[in-house]
Amino acid sequence: MFGNVLDWMQRYIFDPFLLALLPDRCAFCNTVTRINTFVCDDCKPRIRWQTEPFCTKCGHEKAQCSCKKNGRRRWDGAAAPWIYEEASEGITGGCVRLLKSSFYERSAIYMGKEIAAHVRKVFPLTVFDTVMPVPMFPQDEFERGYSQSVWIAQAVAKELGVPFENRLRKIRKTQPQKTLRGSERTVNLRGAFDLDEMYDAPGKTVLLVDDLLTTGSTLEECATILKIYGVEAVYVATACITPNERK
Ligand SMILES: [Zn+2]
Ligand SMILES: [Zn+2]
Predict the structure, then answer these.
(1) Are residues 117 and 208 in the same domain?
(2) Interval between CA 77 and ligand 2 midpoint (Å)
(3) Which H or E run includes 168?
(4) Distance from Cα 4 to the centre of ligand 1, integer Å
(5) Are residues 147 and 36 located together in one domain of the fold?
(6) Separation CA 100–CA 87 (nearest Å)
(7) Do 168 and 194 sit in the same domain of this protein?
(8) Does one domain contain both 70 and 98?
(9) How many A from CA of 54 to the centre of ligand 2?
(10) 7 C-alpha vs ligand 2 centroid, how far in Å?
(11) Same domain (yes/no): 202, 218
């Protein structure tokens, strides 16, 4: 009885009061926005959405399909709602950077919402057993204080109603992928990931989540490890995808 009263007070008195005190902020530029909105009016028209039809294998718009260039991927499908742009020209890059440079969970929650909506649209019939984030090297995560892919994956899992399991491990420190080219990226990542042996992998369908899909080397290496352990199907979902001409 007393608990019910407290719940009621929280729902109808404390939460609205707190929301009024702590206004929402834009997921892209961090300015104050109207309550219950994730994007301010300035940023909204500047988001570059991918438009249908999509290639479900590489995750690009069909017109940008990179399947021929990249050959056979180890994952079974890919999806991303936004086209990545550097912050100087566009704002989706700003969202990724905001998340990487500051402790800003709200960007991750918004990314998670949009990734989940996009995944539902692109793979309407696929039943996922687990949502899993791409892992960071533990020392890097400790230094930053959080992992953006964990936050995004948690938000995706919540939206889709699929269990979140952080079971991949990065077991070796690697050079930043953006400093390397083509085959160097694959070599850099070889043996860098492992899967928690307690994860019951055989037959599972995993949705692997990260912030950005550029060459896809990291996601591909993670997909390879998952399949070695017996995962049946791996789908990758990111907030942004880099247009082909930038790779
Ligand atoms: Zn904004
Ligand atoms: Zn394709």
Answers:
(1) yes
(2) 9
(3) strand 168-170
(4) 38
(5) no
(6) 13
(7) yes
(8) yes
(9) 8
(10) 49
(11) yes
Q: What is the pLDDT of residue 117?
A: 98
Neighbouring residues of 68: CB distance < 8 A, sequence distance ≥ 6 = none
We report the CATH number of the domain holding residue 146 as 3.40.50.2020
pLDDT of residue 205 exceeding 50, the answer is yes
Angle CA(77)–CA(83)–CA(88) in degrees, nearest 5? Answer: 150
Which residues constitute the domain of residue 42?
Answer: 1-46
Q: What is the tally of structural domains in the chain?
A: 2
Residue 240 and residue 213 share a domain: yes
Is pLDDT above 90 for 208?
Answer: yes
List, for residues 170-181, the tens digit of each pLDDT value: 999 888 877 887
**CA–centroid distance, residue 30 to ligand 1 (Å):** 6
Place of tokens 């989706």: 92
Residues 4 and 83 placed together within one structural domain of the fold = no
Higher pLDDT, 92 or 53: 53
Question: How far does residue 33's CA lie from ligand 1's centre (Å)?
Answer: 8
- Residue burial 123-155, b: 16+ Cβ < 10 Å; e: rest: beeeebbbbbbbbbeeeebeeeeebbbbbbbbb
DSSP-derived secondary structure letter, 134: P
Element (H, E) at 197: none
Q: Which pLDDT does position 97 carry in this prediction?
A: 64
First vs last Cα of the chain: how many Å apart? 60
C-alpha to C-alpha distance for 212 and 215, rounded to whole angstroms: 10
Q: How far apart are CA 126 and CA 119, in angstroms?
A: 9
